[in-house]
Amino acid sequence: MSVEQAPVQRADFDQVMVPNYAPAAFIPVRGEGSRVWDQAGRELIDFAGGIAVNVLGHAHPALVGALTEQANKLWHVSNVFTNEPALRLAHKLIDATFAERVFFCNSGAEANEAAFKLARRVAFDRFGSEKYEIIAALNSFHGRTLFTVNVGGQSKYSDGFGPKITGITHVPFNDLEALKAAVSDKTCAVVLEPIQGEGGVLPAELAYLQGARDLCDANNALLVFDEVQTGMGRSGHLFAYQHYGVVPDILTSAKSLGGGFPIAAMLTREDLAKHLVVGTHGTTYGGNPLACAVAEAVIDVINTPEVLAGVNAKHDLFKARLEQIGKQYGIFTQVRGMGLLLGCVLSDAFKGKAKDVFNAAEKENLMILQAGPDVVRFAPSLVVEDADITEGLDRFERAVKTLTQA
């Protein structure tokens, strides 16, 4: 028996929610594949993917099945006990990566928090209390907790919350000389996104990541890769570090890991993991059976040659059409990114207008993203159908045409 729900509208948001978000004017209520329907029954094509989360689109049968099956068994037991889905998922992540140990939590910020705490604890145990400095990149994004927002290289997010966490330095991304100048014997970790996501969908150069690896080795520092946005097939590899062939000491994953169900993981080696002894770190919900069962289904679907090859093929479809649109209408100077994480860099005439592009696309029944004010971002499902790509980009072109001819 279903209980009738009271009707709610977008206007309710402004009455009941903390105003730290500015959501679109419509409310999505149902999704299937790469299509979404709003309260009025309008159909939209989804190229936003819940900000690189809905890795298999909406209501994927494998995920619905895994969640439903687990929901009828066991939801939560806490970390006083372990559970079967968590152990199976950990095995699958270890088998597919450099890692030997896994820590599960609930969000990218939590995974990064764990990574940064681990890096500082390893340095403290091995070298003493003076080795605690963390080097990160300008324009990076690592989460919204007080620690992770300070490691992130965007002061607009970290200013105004009291004294900042000390021992954090920011250097320009892809500038190896600047990184060399910053690293010292006090450095415990260098933290990088293989592709800066919120910073504008900017891939790292291979020589930069190789240089960072060498600097960390030479200075007894750990290399941490934040793959919250790039992980789980998004780059065309299961993780982007595999594309570069540069292996980190610690890797964080979230977003796509649960395909829409909140879950995150910190992956590392055994010799580092052993520094988090019982009681040093924890989380109530981390590794709960529901989340792990869904994530297990996600990795089973994604980590196959067919799906990963498909990501690269779909990348080519997107890039060719986006470059053509950019050239024809003079709106983009560059289309960059890897796999199905793409950023269109706005030309000088449209600098600062990514939100306008977002709004124009929505009027054409298309959901997209921005990555800062100067980059339009696409992060669709990794299994988005080619017909949806074509139709979605037709809608996008109509939006661009309207915007540029206004």
Automatic annotation (TrEMBL):
Gene3D superfamilies: Aspartate Aminotransferase, domain 1, Type I PLP-dependent aspartate aminotransferase-like (Major domain). N(2)-acetyl-L-ornithine binds at R144, T283. Keywords: Amino-acid biosynthesis, Aminotransferase, Arginine biosynthesis, Cytoplasm, Pyridoxal phosphate, Transferase. One of its GO terms (cellular component) is cytoplasm. It comes from the Bacteria. One of its GO terms (biological process) is L-arginine biosynthetic process. Its cofactor is pyridoxal 5'-phosphate. Pathway: Amino-acid biosynthesis; L-arginine biosynthesis; N(2)-acetyl-L-ornithine from L-glutamate: step 4/4. The modification N6-(pyridoxal phosphate)lysine is found at K255. GO terms for molecular function: identical protein binding; N2-acetyl-L-ornithine:2-oxoglutarate 5-aminotransferase activity; pyridoxal phosphate binding. PROSITE patterns: AA_TRANSFER_CLASS_3 (PS00600). May also have succinyldiaminopimelate aminotransferase activity, thus carrying out the corresponding step in lysine biosynthesis. PANTHER family: AMINOTRANSFERASE CLASS III (PTHR11986), SUCCINYLORNITHINE TRANSAMINASE (PTHR11986:SF113). Homodimer. This is Acetylornithine aminotransferase. It comes from Pseudomonas proteolytica.
